[in-house]
Specification:
This is NAD(P)H-binding protein. By secondary structure, this protein is an alpha/beta fold. The chain is built from 15 helices and twelve strands. It is globular, with a radius of gyration of 20 Å.
Length: 315
């Protein structure tokens, strides 16, 4: 039976094109399919200028999920669409606008949307305290899927069943200063966001129609680790003892100010602590798989190799 009947997009629109998934996706598309027209989308005017310099052959657009007119312009004639959203976004409004624009331009043949939640989980099982916080890590992807699922559009959900490896770059200053990994005791797989971008690109370029309307959970198939095990790997790579500090007191002290400034929202660190606590209570579902390996056609990056590559950035 031949499954290769999905049209390959001639123009692909990439949201978040300057970020840690969207940019690797754009680079891979440019390399693998130079005949495909790239439309790189960002909501930041400064970013669009940088993208124009880095991708001179691509069309660069400024668009905002809350501005229908900008979405209509950015998606005009786009046959492939990559969707990723920032944490704490109002997904109800954003995805409602996006669906309306996609349907208005009526050109999409395949859409890939990044999500991140426990498979088979439902939003009603999320603790009330997390739901009351509003849109955030614990709830926003359920809301997005509800809106997108009702649209009938040809979507592949790429579910990140893992933690992004570059999170350790983001907290490097704390690690250097404290000589410890300040992070709750999680039990979770890992994945390199660059490979997430490549996976999304490969799916968009694939003629295999079986990717449509699927929910694919991905991780690197190798690292299902507790946080203290991560600290041990980091110690091996650095040849220096890095302890693990999973206390709530240290976590809130180190991250409250950073994250409230970053997200312009009060209570983010406390919210994430509560989310990690909920995650720990439900971590029996965690497992490694080979979905990423099969799509990439190689073994994905391991956390140890990522630490070795980025040694100067993580400590």
């Amino acid at each position: 039976m031949n499954f290769d009947t999905k049209p390959i997009p001639g123009t692909i629109a990439v949201f978040g094109a300057n970020a840690h998934i969207g940019k690797p996706l754009a680079k891979f598309l440019h390399f693998k399919a130079p005949h495909v027209k790239l439309r790189l989308i960002s909501s930041n005017p400064a970013t669009t200028k940088n993208l124009g310099q880095e991708f001179p052959d691509a069309q660069v657009c400024r668009a905002d999920y809350f501005d229908r007119a900008s979405l209509d312009d950015a998606l005009r004639d786009a046959e492939g669409i990559f969707i990723v959203t920032p944490t704490y976004l109002d997904e109800q409004v954003a995805m409602t606008n996006l669906v309306a624009s996609i349907k208005a331009v009526a050109s999409a043949v395949h859409i890939v949307r990044i999500v991140g939640h426990e498979p088979e989980q439902t939003i009603d099982r999320i603790p009330q305290r997390l739901r009351e916080f509003g849109s955030g890590t614990a709830t926003q992807h359920f809301i997005a899927r509800e809106v997108l699922g009702a649209s009938g559009l040809p979507i592949t959900y790429l579910n990140i069943g893992a933690s992004y490896m570059d999170n350790f770059i983001r907290i490097a200053e704390i690690t250097r200063r404290t000589k410890s990994l300040v992070w709750p005791q999680r039990y979770i797989p890992y994945i390199d966001p660059r490979e997430v971008g490549e996976i999304a690109a490969r799916i968009l370029l694939s003629p295999d129609r079986r990717y449509l309307h699927q929910f694919l959970t991905i991780n690197n198939g190798h690292d299902l680790l507790t946080s203290d095990a991560v600290a041990a790997i980091l110690s091996d790579v650095l040849l220096e003892r890095i302890s693990h500090d999973g206390s709530k007191e240290t976590f809130l002290r180190e991250f409250t100010g950073i994250w409230e400034r970053r997200y312009n929202r009060k209570g983010v660190a406390e919210y994430l602590w509560d989310f990690f606590k909920y995650e720990a209570e439900n971590c029996a579902f965690q497992s490694l798989n080979d979905v990423a390996e099969r799509i990439l056609q190689r073994k994905p990056m391991t956390l140890r190799a990522f630490f070795q590559e980025h040694r100067a950035l993580i400590y």
